[in-house]
Design goal:
Elements (H helix, E strand, L loop, with lengths): L1 H20 L3 E5 L4 E5 H96 L1
Antiparallel strand pairs: 1-2
């Protein structure tokens, strides 16, 4: 921003020096009249009109940019809200998955315990049967 101000001041000084060195009176033809004016006033007046025009265009650009930034911030807030909702759903699904994994592990442990119990019951019966055969 400071560079912009410095460059503007340098440009203004150059225009003023140019206008001072060209101080002769000239005939300026407007659409509806002709006027004799010093060239310095014509140069400075033209520069001021140009600066005012640039200021107006810059103001419109800034307004448009500000509106665009405001719209983008609204979109960002909306997307962040959606992401938070999705993160909450992901957490719920992860918790449900953990519960399912725990249930499956518990059921697998129960199955293993029942198999072991069944094996223990079958072994004594086969032992008893072999004892009977040997007698």
């Amino acid at each position: 921003m400071q560079l912009y101000v410095v460059l503007t001041l340098i440009f203004a000084i150059l225009i003023t020096l140019f206008a001072i060195f060209n101080a002769e009176v000239i005939l300026v033809n407007f659409l509806f009249a002709e006027v004799d004016m010093p060239l310095a006033l014509v140069i400075i007046g033209s520069a001021l009109v140009g600066a005012i025009a640039m200021l107006i265009f810059d103001t419109f650009r800034r307004i448009k940019s500000g509106k665009n930034i405001k719209d983008l911030k609204k979109q960002l807030d909306s997307h962040q809200k959606i992401m938070q909702e999705k993160d909450g759903k992901i957490t719920q699904v992860e918790n449900a998955l953990n519960q399912c994994e725990t249930t499956v592990k518990n059921q697998q442990d129960l199955i293993d315990a029942l198999k072991a119990e069944k094996t223990e019951k079958i072994e004594p019966e086969t032992t008893n049967t072999s004892e009977m055969v040997t007698e």
